[in-house]
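Input for the complex:
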Amino acid sequence: MRLSKFFMPMLRETPAEAQIVSHRLMLRAGMVRQAAAGIYSWLPLGFRVLQKIAQIVREEQDRSGAQEVLMPTIQSADLWRASNRYDDYGKEMLRIKDRHDRDMLYGPTNEELITDIFRNSVKSYRDLPRNLYHIQWKFRDEVRPRFGVMRGREFLMKDNYSFDLDTAGARHSYNKMFIAYLRTFARMGLKAIPMRAETGPIGGDLSHEFIILADTGESAVYCDRGWLETNVLAGDTDYEQDLNPAVAEWTKLYAATDNQHDPEACTLPSDRLHSGRGIEVGHIFNFGTKYSKPMNCAVVGPKGEQIFVEMGSYGIGVSRLAGAIIEASHDEAGIIWPDSVAPFDVGLINLRSGDAKCDAAADDFYRKLIAAGKSVLHDDRTESAGSKFITMDLIGLPWQLIVGPRGLAAGRVELKRRKTGAREELSIDQALNKLTA
RNA sequence: CGGAGUGUAGCUCAGCCUGGUAGAGCACUGCGUUCGGGUCGCAGGGGUCGAAGGUUCGAAUCCUUUCACUCCGACCA
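Predicted:
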């Protein structure tokens, strides 16, 4: 993509409405624009990031055996009346009437709808377990949206729902998601700590929030200092094996959200206790038969008996992650994208657009990098060199390939790693090899 | 939902107190200049001052109403 043709409206100054760093940088880099309070349009640069994040989530869900569906944003109120949540949800739910004066709503979540789909289609224990997910926009009419896309009213969320025959099966489904979440966040370059969270109606320990430590986080969290040095990374996993040992390993160090942390009961020595703030990027939850019973979602068991399905739900804030990743990875100059979610792999800077040699060299690089499967943003504008450097640092692409007349005269180009700031002078072939290795 | 603010050019803001022909910087357009970390100069274009009422000879400015947005708190992926 040529930057001269790319729709990326940057701002030199920070709009007054943006308070936290991720919001400021997303606006300045032209990733998003606010449409209304807590509602955002995603411009090309931001949308590419959103899709990268969603794709990682998708791949890890698929790997765990979950299957992708797509449910609508608009739902009928009837189902929500059946579960009694139509009234319980209160003003957070955006209620709409259609032309026939029927009560509709913009879905804040999908338990009712997925349960309805499931109960209408699955009748036998032989069809369990199942795990269905979708990545869809949700709306919760927050009293006070803030922090840009991190706390919007409309947000993109991956949510899925597991259906099992018994509690042991539900536990296994839960464990699968636990591991899948570790893998998902690790692939985005994030350290997301699984923290004990408020449990569902069946109690136990079957609820965890996945939290990124950040000073700008919206909730207070407490954890063993050991987490600060822990590399959260789950390797290849056989999802059919017993996952209890793996989950136990990842939960042995203390970690709890504010409402779960009891200073009286916490046995951790005070010098091992880290208290800070965190951003919730995922939440997994087992709720047993909370929806299957009132909505009569049951299958016939091997002895002909009725069995209410054991369910769990699991969420990842996809649009929130775009902001959270920036909170976790930036410097004074701008965003520092982890390679896996960067909107482009390489920022190619032609320092002297219009100069025949520079143009030819830059175009050649562009073609070869694209041919090697890399995505490239080519700054071919006739701006000053300094302006191009600052632009590239702001949007935070992992690699900057700098082509200028001075270097070219010596057959060299410069390669800069955004994350470390390290630059090296390389021959053209060396630079290509390094970027396509 | 309680409390506090802000709405003037695409962005950051001044002007309002004390009413009298709408401003600056950045951005944008043209020309020249410069060219390896936001070059410099000259000349331009762009705003029914959030909206509606009112007071006044005259309202961005004073009064009333209303809408939007932001911040603090309580609540949430």
